[in-house]
Amino acid sequence: MESFEASVVDSDADAIERSNEAALRPTSLDEFVGQRTVRDQLSLVLRAAVSRGATADHVLLSGPPGLGKTTLAMIVAGEMGATLRVSSGPAIQHAGDLAAILSSLDEGDVLFLDEIHRLARPAEEMLYLAMEDFRVDVVVGKGAGATSIPLSLPPFTIVGATTRAGLLPAPLRDRFGFTAHLDFYSDDELHSIVGRSAGKLGFEISGDAAAEIASRSRGTPRIANRLLRRVRDWAQVHGSGTGDLAAAQQALIVYEVDERGLDRLDRAVLRALCTRFGGGPVGLSTLAVSVGEESETVETVAEPFLVREGLMSRSPRGRIATADGWAHLGLEPPAGALPGAPGGRLFD
Ligand SMILES: Nc1ncnc2c1ncn2[C@@H]1O[C@H](COP(=O)(O)OP(=O)(O)OP(=O)(O)O)[C@@H](O)[C@H]1O
Ligand SMILES: [Mg+2]
């Protein structure tokens, strides 16, 4: 059973979805689609380390949710033939938590620290020392009688992942020997991911259906895999059981994902902006009230994609619909509407 998803195109995943995803993860760099530069560079780092018989440099992976950071962390361990240990910033509340993890590492282990930007400060400082000198200072006792005992660690590799690279303090960022930023995927790359995932699910899908899913997946493999599962559901319940173009289109109508990957909230925001506020500029809170949502939801869930697609722009005076935004709703843009500004770079 899968959980109810508020939106089928949310780039975040809950626990149940993450367990579904495990089955679809590529397990080697060769199987990892797209991100060509990152793949080539990482492959070099790992192969060089293997040939020296050494552990690999620490690796930092950054980028938006659902683009493959966790997948790559697992691949690093796999390619190194190493044991993967997993923890995350929010799980490490105290320096002692980190000390316990670090002191239990064996030589060559890969420690994956997800959401590393959320590490507590004292843990962060302990991590500096561990990454650079393979050492932790364990504090024994309390108050005036506390002593710190240096403990040396066997060499290991940290793979850090973050959706917010900008929040990482420079001293931490600098301790990673290899840093990679993951970007959104092209439709062709997503097409190939959908094809591979369908194969793993034992679900037969046509090329045009896979392309249809790819083009509505917002550049994000997680969303592509999720839409694929929805299409499979539709095909099993209403269709022939195989994924043809009609099944893909019908399923995406049921889940209200339009041909550009916008969901209901995205369209409601865009429509309110155009029809109620004449295309703006209008303030975020006014816009949010008019669609009956929290400002934060509009700002963090709907806006980033609308701005990235060049359908909307953020200006110092408020939100503005671009000519592309009007056109996407089938409306005539007013004279003087901004042209589409992909990425919203016009003002950001
Ligand atoms: N390059 C890729 N090729 C094939 N599948 C991919 C690729 N990147 C991601 N996926 C698939 O997309 C899903 C999400 O990927 P992953 O969990 O690695 O994302 P993430 O960047 O760690 O996201 P988050 O920031 O939310 O933790 C997984 O099921 C994974 O198999
Ligand atoms: Mg992840």
From TrEMBL:
Q: Which reaction does it catalyse?
A: ATP + H2O = ADP + phosphate + H(+)
Grouped into one coarse class, the protein's main location is: cytoplasm
Amino acids binding ATP: L24, R25, G66, K69, T70, T71, E132, D133, F134, R175, Y185, R222
Q: Which InterPro entries match?
A: AAA+_ATPase (IPR003593), AAA_lid_4 (IPR041445), DNA_helicase_Holl-junc_RuvB (IPR004605), P-loop_NTPase (IPR027417), RuvB-like_N (IPR008824), RuvB_wg_C (IPR008823), WH-like_DNA-bd_sf (IPR036388), WH_DNA-bd_sf (IPR036390)
Region listing for Head domain (RuvB-H), in residue ranges: 259-348
Q: Which residues of this UniProt protein bind DNA?
A: R314, R319
Top enzyme category: hydrolase
Q: Specify the domain of life of the species encoding this protein.
A: Bacteria
Give the AAA+ ATPase domain ranges.
Answer: 55-186
Q: Where in the cell is it found?
A: Cytoplasm
Q: What is its EC number?
A: 3.6.4.-
| Region of interest called Small ATPAse domain (RuvB-S), as start-end residue ranges on this chain | 186-256
**Which residues are Mg(2+)-binding?**
T70
Coiled-coil region: none
Query: Which CDD domains does the record match to this protein?
Result: AAA (cd00009)
Give a GO molecular function annotation for the protein: hydrolase activity
Which family does the UniProt entry place this protein in? Belongs to the RuvB family.
Provide the assembly information: Homohexamer. Forms an RuvA(8)-RuvB(12)-Holliday junction (HJ) complex. HJ DNA is sandwiched between 2 RuvA tetramers; dsDNA enters through RuvA and exits via RuvB. An RuvB hexamer assembles on each DNA strand where it exits the tetramer. Each RuvB hexamer is contacted by two RuvA subunits (via domain III) on 2 adjacent RuvB subunits; this complex drives branch migration. In the full resolvosome a probable DNA-RuvA(4)-RuvB(12)-RuvC(2) complex forms which resolves the HJ.
Primary role: The RuvA-RuvB-RuvC complex processes Holliday junction (HJ) DNA during genetic recombination and DNA repair, while the RuvA-RuvB complex plays an important role in the rescue of blocked DNA replication forks via replication fork reversal (RFR). RuvA specifically binds to HJ cruciform DNA, conferring on it an open structure. The RuvB hexamer acts as an ATP-dependent pump, pulling dsDNA into and through the RuvAB complex. RuvB forms 2 homohexamers on either side of HJ DNA bound by 1 or 2 RuvA tetramers; 4 subunits per hexamer contact DNA at a time.
Q: Which NCBIfam families match?
A: PRK00080.1, ruvB
Name of this protein: Holliday junction branch migration complex subunit RuvB
Species source reads: Demequina muriae
Recite the lineage of the species: Bacteria, Bacillati, Actinomycetota, Actinomycetes, Micrococcales
